[in-house]
Write a structure and sequence with these properties.
The structure is a homodimer of 334-residue chains.
Chain A lengths: L3 H8 L3 H7 L8 H14 L5 H8 L4 E6 L5 H16 L3 E6 L4 H13 L4 E4 L7 H10 L4 E4 L10 E4 L1 H14 L5 E5 L5 H16 L9 E3 L4 H12 L7 E4 L2 H13 L9 E3 L16 E3 L2 H17 L8 E4 L2 E3 L7
The structure holds a DNA duplex (30 and 30 nucleotides).
Chain lengths: 334, 334
DNA sequence: AGCAAAAATGTAAACGTTTACATTTTTTAT
DNA sequence: ATAAAAAATGTAAACGTTTACATTTTTGCT
C-alpha cells in the first residue's frame, strides 16, 4: 500500500511537504498541492491514521459508551453521534457497559489504550462516576455526558429536560380531564427517572391536585414481577383514569394489561409514554408520548466534544438541555 | 502516561523483554515476568495500541458496517459482535451505510485507513459488492458477511436460513387451517427477502396449494404508500385468512390495519411475522414470528472473522447458516 | 568440570507519519 | 537593484511499540 514516501519519491518533494498537503494545506503552494494530490490519487494513497495518531497524539477516534447498544433509544443517539462525528472527520468506537460499573471502567480503559481523543458516555445505573472523571481528567481526555448524567453540574453534558417532559405530559392528561392520575416510575437509580417523577409531582401540585403515595408505582425492573404489580394495581379499587409512564416500552405493557382487563384506552384510561420510540406508533391505539430528540442529542454531544477537541484552551463547561415535545396520538384522546 | 520505557528503566530490563511480557510471554522467565507486571501495575501502565498497531500491523480493531445502526435487528447483531469480539480482545468500530452503496464504500475506505484487521458487513440494498471484495482482497483484509449477503457463494458468511424460516412460518399457518394465504414481500433487492419469498412459495407447493400472483403483495418501502396498499388489499374481495409478513415491523402495520377494519386477529385472520424483535411481544395480540438469533449471528460472525485473523494461512470459506425458530404466540392461535 | 543446547535477555532498526527548526525561494517595498 | 519579509520547502528526530538477530545466562548431560 502506497505511503507518503512513495509520493515523495514520485514527486521529488520532501516528506514534510507531502504531509502538509494533507494537513495544514495552506502552507504549501497551489501548484505543488495539485501535483501531490494527483500523484496521490494515481497511487491510491490512503493515509495511515495509526501512524498519524501515534506521532500527533490525535487519533481521530471518539469513544462512545452506552449501557446497551441494543436499545432503540441509545442506538438512535449513536446514530446521531455517528452522523455528526463522521461529518467532522471522526470515527466512533462503541463499548457497552451492560449497566455494570465494572464493565464501564474496563471499557474506558480499553478506549484509553486506543488513544481515543474524547469520550461520550451515558452512565450505567450505579456508576460512581467520580473515579472515572478523575482518571479522564488526569489523562486529559475530554468527555461529554449524554442523557444519563451525574446529578452534579460542572461537566459538559447534553440531556433532555426530563422534568419538563414529565410536566407537560402530566398537564396534558389533566387537560384531557383526567382526575385520577398514576405515574409509573422508572428505576430511581437513574437520574432521569428522578427528574421525571419530580415533573409529574409538580404538575399535580401546580394544578391543585393532592399528591399521595398511591399515585406512584415504582418498578423493580423485572418484567414479570413488574407486569403483575401493574396488573394488581389497575384491577384494584384505586380509581385511575390517566397514567403517565416513564417509558414507551413499559407503557405498552400497561396498554396490554388494560386490554386484558377490558379497560378501554383512551375511553376509560388515558395513557402517555415517554421516548417516542418507533414502537410507540405501532401500537393500537397509538401511544401519546414525549419525544426526546435522540438524533439531536447525539449530534449535540458530538459537536460539543469535537469543539473541545479542536479548541486549544479548555472551553467553559457546556450544558445543553433539549426541549421535550409532546406527541399527541390516540392513547390520550378525549 | 507511563510507557514500556519507564518500566524498562525501573526494572533495569530491556525494552524487548518488557514488550515480550505483554505478548509472547512464554519467552521470558517467570521471575522477571512477575517483576515487570508488578512495576507495570505500580506505574499504571497502559499499552499504547496505536504504537503496537503501527509496528506490528495488528490493530486489534474490527470494522463493522451495517445499513442502519438504529434498527433493532442490526443493533442486536452488533451486540453479539461486540460481546464476542471484546471477549477475544478486539475492539469494534462501527459505520453505517444508510443503504447507500456510496457511503458503504466511503465507510470501507475510512476503516481501511484506520487499519482495521478485518471487516464484518451486512450490505446495503443496491450494493455492487464485487469492487468491495476486490479492494479488500487486494488489501488482504478478511471480511465476513452477515445476514444480508451477496447471493454468490465463495465468501465467509453467516446468515439465517431465511428460506426455511419462511417455510415453517407458512406451514404453521397452513396447519392452523388457513386456506387463503397472503405473503407480504419485502424489498427484493435484499437477498433475504427473495429467500423468504421462495420459502413461502415452496411451502404452498408442498402442501398442494395453488400459487397465484394474488398471493403476493410487494411493497415500495414507503410507509404511507405501503400501508394504504395493504389496506386496499385487505378490504378487497380477495379472501385472506392467513398472512405471512416479511418482517415484524410491517406485521404490526398489518395488525393495526386489520384492527381498523374490525377484522379479528387471530380469529378471522392469522398473522406470522419475521424477526422476533422486541416489539413483536409488545403488541396485542402478541405476534407469532420467526426468531433470527441475532446475538448468535453476531457472535458467529466475530468468531469466524477472528479465526481468520489468527490463522497464519487463509482458512477455507466458512458459511454458517443459522436455524430459524418458530415462536408461536397469540396472532396465529386457533 | 566442561560443553552443547535451551532459555532468557539485549540491541537496534523499523512501522508511517508529524513537526520544530532550518533553509531556500519568492514576493514586496524602497 | 536590494534588503527585508513572507512563503514554500527541506531535514531529521520523534511518537511507543515490535521483532529479527545477536548475545548472554542457565540448564542438562557426561
Amino acid at each position: 500500500m502506497a505511503g507518503i514516501k512513495d509520493i515523495a519519491k514520485k514527486t521529488g518533494l520532501s516528506l514534510a511537504t507531502i504531509s502538509r498537503v494533507f494537513n495544514d494545506s495552506n502552507l504549501v503552494s497551489n501548484k505543488t498541492k495539485a501535483k501531490v494530490l494527483s500523484v496521490a490519487k494515481e497511487l491510491d494513497y490512503q493515509p495511515n491514521l495509526m501512524a498519524a495518531a501515534l506521532r500527533s497524539g490525535k487519533s481521530k477516534i471518539i469513544g462512545v459508551i452506552v449501557p446497551e447498544i441494543n436499545n432503540p433509544f441509545f442506538s438512535a443517539i449513536i446514530n446521531g453521534i455517528e452522523l455528526r462525528a463522521s461529518k467532522l472527520g471522526y470515527n466512533i468506537i462503541i463499548a457497552q457497559s451492560h449497566e455494570s460499573s465494572q464493565k464501564e471502567n474496563r471499557a474506558i480503559q480499553s478506549l484509553l489504550k486506543l488513544n481515543v481523543e474524547g469520550i461520550l458516555i451515558s452512565v450505567s445505573k450505579q456508576t460512581d462516576y467520580l473515579p472515572i472523571l478523575a482518571k479522564l481528567k488526569s489523562n486529559k481526555v475530554p468527555m461529554v455526558f449524554f442523557d444519563r448524567t451525574p446529578l452534579e453540574n460542572d461537566i459538559d453534558q447534553v440531556i433532555l429536560d426530563d422534568y419538563k417532559g414529565a410536566y407537560i405530559a402530566t398537564e396534558h392528561l389533566i387537560n384531557q380531564n383526567c382526575k385520577n392520575l398514576l405515574h409509573i416510575v422508572g428505576d430511581l437509580e437513574v437520574s432521569i427517572h428522578q427528574r421525571r417523577k419530580d415533573g409529574f409531582k409538580d404538575a399535580l401540585a401546580k394544578n391543585g391536585i393532592p399528591i399521595s403515595k398511591q399515585r406512584f408505582l415504582s418498578l423493580e425492573m423485572d418484567v414479570n414481577q413488574d407486569t403483575s404489580k401493574i396488573r394488581l394495581l389497575l384491577q384494584s379499587k384505586l380509581p385511575v383514569d390517566g397514567v403517565f409512564v416513564h417509558g414507551d416500552e413499559t407503557c405498552l405493557y400497561v396498554l396490554n394489561i388494560l386490554k386484558d382487563l377490558k379497560i378501554k384506552v383512551p375511553k376509560k384510561v388515558k395513557l402517555v409514554g415517554f421516548g417516542n420510540t418507533k414502537f410507540s406508533m405501532l401500537s393500537h391505539p397509538k401511544l401519546s408520548t414525549i419525544d426526546q430528540g435522540c438524533i439531536e442529542m447525539g449530534t449535540y454531544a458530538s459537536e460539543i466534544l469535537i469543539g473541545q477537541l479542536k479548541s486549544k484552551t479548555p472551553l467553559p463547561t457546556q450544558k445543553k438541555i433539549l426541549p421535550p415535545k409532546l406527541i399527541i396520538r390516540e392513547s390520550s384522546a378525549t
